[in-house]
Amino acid sequence: MAIAFSSGDEDEVVSAINTTPLVDVMLVLLIIFLITVPVVTNTVPVSLPKELNQPRLAAPENINIAVDRDGKVFWNELALADHDALLARLKDVSQQTPQPEVQIRGDEAALYEHVGRVVFACQRAGILRLGFITEPPPRG
Question: By Cβ atoms counted within 10 A, which residue in 32, 59, 88, 118 is the most buried?
């Protein structure tokens, strides 16, 4: 119970909530739950199957092929000499397990023919996952 001492009016109402009993009840409930939880977790003894954790192969890093406006091809920012060099690298990549994704970044001013050659080289090399990187449209 709350006792309010006032210096004047005896009819004044105390509007403050006494939270001491609430805290006491909550602490008692907390102690009861801490004591009863270990008792509840005891179950019927059974022999569970054993599982071996084997590390899975991490996904290989994506390969970025860029085509500039003049038709020059870049492999992860490294300029390639010609179309045959691109095809040779793509054939090496197609033999990897799991196979990485090839992502093509074509300049918007480049002729479609240059980007099409890269797509055709990926197809000839046996690349299964091919993607195109574009700019998102402006919000508005």
Answer: 118
